[in-house]
């Protein structure tokens, strides 16, 4: 085949099309699995990484499921950023993610491409005919799985034709003689495609044709590991000191592993040859074995030195994480208690609701801190910690829904259920409004604008009232100094409403006399005031649902509850 003739251009187009199908297939399969698992992926990472070995295991399994080592690493960096995971745990996730990334290449090595179109057909049928979302998501997994192999088959068929060109042949021979350039090629290709699986898949097909040598194939694999680190570094940039350390460990670990692989290339290739011969594997499986063995050996080498690696990272990336608000994880919700002792189960839900209240106060404080600091780190912390409050909402709502279904639930316990459920929903809304406020502030700061000194002072006055109201509301819910706190919440609510009305009028006055310089800030300022007011209304709701009669409203007739 002559270079750049019509047949070559057609083959090149089919290779690119096959690559696109392959990458889309991986993304589709990953999206389907994420939809099936929902938020559980993040929960598993947070819950089952108590020691380094478990962190490595979870990193391997999650990456195998998500088909993305980058996704697992970025999630762990996000948890470190939020203070919900230690650096050592994130390092374990990173190590395991490299092993889990071999799953795709092993599947490719099994040569199941002949069934690709049957799998696609199954996936499409599930997506079109299934009534339940879970089956639709499963159909997406099947579709992605099939497209992955269909794209690979197209690539393989056309790469055999392209391999006949003198230029391509010479390039592969050159890379075989200069494996460090193959390493660089694998790094760049993975960084551009954002998929090490795609690069390894191409190498498997090239190796099958015989045009690429074992040395070049192994070097490409080492490079694909290095190329995955770009997204992790971006995820860690601008975050906490610990999240930057986690991101750079990912980069350094993969780079050092690649360099060691290049230095020990001869014994490494001998080991891969021996194992692949023993299992009577295909050429594609040879590359898959090389990928897996390399990552397992890298794990064995680094595992004993994780402690020293953490110390070294602390020297290379000095500093301490800013102490953020203390976030409390949800306590164990014992479903076994519900049937035998529902009163005790309600008490468990009440204690967790009080924890949720403290976390909600923390998020509100974080949004105010971001207003003052304009720091991306503070903004990210609000978004990360809000996920913890959402977890409280999901878990407590499910727990309470099981409790209320019990036949032996008394009248007082039914009221307690209603009280707990309503407080949980109002706390979740306060948390959502805190996040919305931080997003409003970001709109202003992204446009290089600011709030005027007067506006800033006004917002702080409203925050100060809310910071008193929420603890007082939760004290009423907890039955602590109830009468005193009911009165306090009522008085603070009236002050908040008065401030909002006054600040709204002041804002319009500033617009009229042109003293308000900032366009974006001016356009959303009333929305910010409304959000702060709504937070107060939800705090009032907590009180009104925590007393037998609407004692707040009876003392302050002008106050009315709002829908949660």
Describe this structure as you would to a colleague:
The protein has 25 helices and no strands. With 564 residues, it is mainly α. The chain folds into two domains: 8-316, no CATH class; 336-555, Methane Monooxygenase Hydroxylase, Chain G, domain 1.
List the helices and strands and how they pair.
Layout: H1 6-37, H2 40-47, H3 52-66, H4 69-81, H5 87-100, H6 103-109, H7 116-129, H8 133-162, H9 166-177, H10 179-193, H11 196-209, H12 214-227, H13 229-236, H14 241-263, H15 265-278, H16 283-302, H17 306-316, H18 336-340, H19 342-373, H20 376-404, H21 411-446, H22 453-477, H23 482-512, H24 519-544, H25 551-555
Helix pairs in contact: 1-8, 3-4, 3-5, 4-5, 4-13, 4-14, 5-14, 5-16, 6-11, 6-16, 7-8, 8-11, 9-12, 10-12, 11-12, 11-16, 12-14, 12-16, 13-14, 15-16, 19-20, 19-21, 19-22, 20-21, 21-24, 22-23, 22-24, 23-24
- Helical residues, percent: over 70%
**Unreliable parts:** none
Shape from CA axes?
Answer: elongated
> Biggest β-sheet: count, sense, barrel?
none
SSE series: HHHHHHHHHHHHHHHHHHHHHHHHH
Question: What oligomeric assembly is this protein in?
Answer: single chain
Which value, in Å, is the CA radius of gyration?
29 Å
Q: Structural class per helix/strand content? A: mainly alpha
**Percentage beta strand:** under 5%
Number of domains: 2
- Summed over residues and divided by their number, the pLDDT gives a mean of 79
Number of helices: 25
Distance between the termini: 70 Å
Query: Using DSSP, what is the number of strands?
Result: 0
């Amino acid at each position: 085949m002559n270079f750049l003739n019509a047949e070559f251009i057609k083959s090149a187009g089919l290779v690119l099309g096959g690559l696109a199908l392959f990458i889309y297939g991986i993304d589709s399969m990953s999206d389907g699995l994420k939809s099936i698992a929902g938020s559980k992926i993040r929960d598993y990472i947070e819950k089952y990484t108590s020691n380094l070995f478990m962190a490595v295991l979870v990193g391997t399994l999650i990456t195998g499921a998500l088909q993305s080592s980058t996704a697992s690493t970025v999630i762990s960096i996000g948890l470190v950023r939020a203070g919900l995971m230690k650096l050592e745990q994130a390092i374990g996730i990173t190590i395991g993610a490299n092993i889990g990334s071999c799953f795709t290449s092993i599947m490719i090595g099994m040569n199941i491409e002949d069934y690709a179109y049957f799998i696609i057909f199954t996936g499409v049928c599930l997506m079109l005919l299934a009534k339940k979302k879970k089956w639709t998501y499963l159909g997406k997994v099947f579709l992605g799985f099939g497209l992955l192999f269909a794209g690979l088959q197209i690539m393989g068929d056309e790469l055999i034709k392209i391999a006949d060109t003198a230029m391509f042949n010479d390039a592969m021979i050159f890379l075989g003689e200069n494996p460090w350039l193959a390493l660089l090629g694998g790094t760049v290709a993975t960084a551009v495609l954002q998929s090490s699986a795609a690069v390894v898949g191409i190498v498997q097909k090239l190796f099958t044709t015989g045009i690429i040598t074992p040395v070049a194939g192994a070097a490409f694999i080492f490079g694909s590991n290095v190329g995955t680190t770009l997204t992790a570094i971006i995820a860690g940039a601008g975050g906490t000191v610990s999240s930057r350390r986690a991101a750079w460990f990912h980069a350094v670990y993969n780079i050092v592993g690649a360099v060691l692989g290049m230095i020990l290339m001869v014994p490494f290739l001998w080991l891969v040859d021996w194992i692949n011969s023993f299992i009577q594997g295909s050429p594609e499986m040879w590359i898959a074995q090389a990928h897996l063995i390399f990552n397992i050996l890298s794990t064995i080498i680094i595992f004993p030195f994780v402690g020293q690696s953490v110390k070294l990272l602390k020297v290379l990336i000095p500093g301490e994480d800013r102490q953020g608000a203390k976030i409390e994880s949800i306590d164990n919700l014992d479903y076994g208690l519900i049937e035998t002792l529902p009163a005790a189960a309600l008490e468990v839900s009440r204690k967790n609701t009080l924890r949720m209240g403290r976390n909600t106060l923390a998020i509100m404080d974080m949004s105010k801190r971001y207003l003052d600091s304009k720091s991306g780190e503070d903004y990210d912390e609000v978004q990360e910690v809000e996920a913890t409050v959402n977890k409280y909402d999901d878990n407590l709502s499910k727990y309470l829904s099981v409790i209320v279904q019990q036949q032996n639930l008394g009248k007082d316990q039914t009221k307690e259920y209603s009280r707990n459920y309503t407080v949980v929903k109002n706390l979740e809304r306060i948390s959502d409004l805190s996040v919305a406020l931080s997003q409003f502030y970001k709109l202003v700061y992204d446009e290089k604008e600011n709030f005027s000194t007067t506006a800033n002072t006004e917002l702080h006055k409203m925050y100060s009232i809310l910071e008193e109201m929420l603890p007082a509301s939760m004290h009423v819910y907890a039955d602590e100094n109830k009468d005193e706190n009911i009165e306090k919440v009522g008085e603070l609510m009236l002050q908040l409403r008065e401030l909002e009305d006054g600040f709204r009028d002041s804002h319009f006055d500033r617009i009229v006399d042109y003293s308000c310089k900032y366009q974006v800030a001016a356009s959303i300022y009333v929305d910010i005031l409304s959000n702060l007011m709504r937070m107060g209304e939800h705090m009032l709701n907590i009180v009104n649902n925590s007393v037998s009669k609407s004692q707040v409203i009876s003392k302050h007739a002008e106050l009315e509850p709002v829908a949660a």
